Amino acid sequence: MNQLLALPLEVRLASLFVIGTLFGSFINWGIYALAWCPRPISPWQRPNPEAPRRSWFDFVPVLGWLGLAREAKLHGRGFWLRPLLLELASGLGLAALYHWEISGQLAPPLVPPFAVPFLVIPPTTAMLHQQFACHALIIALMLVATFIDFDEKTIPDAITIPGTLLGLVLAAVWPDALLPVVRLFPRPPQYGPLLFTSTDEWPPWLDGWCGAALGVMIFCLWCAALIPALATLRRGWLKGAQLYFASIARDSAWWKMLLLAAVGSAAILFVWNQGGPRWQSLLTALVGLAGGGGLIWAVRIVGEIALRKEAMGFGDVTLMAMIGAFLGWQACLVIFFLSPFAALLIAVTQWALTGRRDIAFGPYLCLAALFVIVKWAAIWTELAPLFALGWLVPGVFAVCLVLMLGLLMLWRIAEQALFGSR
Q1: Which of 42, 63, 213, 409 lies at a C-alpha separation of 20 to 30 Å from 300?
Q2: Which domain holds residue 286?
Q3: Is residue 313 very low, low, confident or very high in pLDDT (cuts 50, 70, 90)?
């Protein structure tokens, strides 16, 4: 770390630009290879049999797409512009993110009146670099999910499941990598990672069996939710349960999820047995997983009841669970309330130009998550008193869900009156 910091900032930023363009190459690979309908566009994929033979220059980030433009007859005119710009943006974005985070811009100011400025212990260099690495990874994963959702209106499990597991592993390995907050306990105040109990002190009972049971339960429920299954209550609870378990048995995915649940639970118990910051960070990531995924799942259920059609895909649920594993439930709550503003603007523009009323919501969750990462200092400073309300926060959200149910029902009635039933 000291050798890295000994390099001039300009050299570090230039190196990160080059690394970022390489990151962008693999982001492009993920967009085209992990989609529901893969397309042989990235040079890292097996080329179309009709494509001209590729050269080493085609694998060079950014510039290689100038040569790959020769495949326009196979992939469409100007197909190479988006991946070229994405790799360029990845390089510039990675360098900008590093400069922003290492300069301490993510560290929120003190939360008055509890802390005294000259007594606060500042964040360490290692903490800042761990946060930067984790944020760069989650942004890369969100970019893959965003462009696949734009292209296909779906978010593959091949992104969100490994991404969630990566978030949990990093939380246990790098406990300081979570979003930074000012911890008031123990004195003196110091910068530390966001915990799911922030702004309050970590209660000792979470280090006991209750905390271990909570972590294992969340992970096992997440694994169970990922098993493909069909369910309906139209013929009663008994028939619905029979259909549910029969659909699980027909798909071979159940034993993979069972194995994942067993291995993951053992790993969680291992970290719990170690205790300390690693366990606190891992349990925070697990609660973030549950909070983020559960948030969108609740909205999905309410939307389906009100609109009588699928309002949000299950890919949005797994995407938000992945984001929650990296950023925590507090950040997910902010992301949820910010994302509709971007989505509304795009939806109105899309409807005016094309007449389409469907939107891919995943990209706007990702855009809001990026905003939260970059502007975390200001966000936490303003909202820390809100999160200090503790259990009142879920209660307020429950009231918002009821209000949303009523508003969506009114929207469905208005939509039928204006456009008729479709």
Answers
A1: 213
A2: 181-419
A3: confident
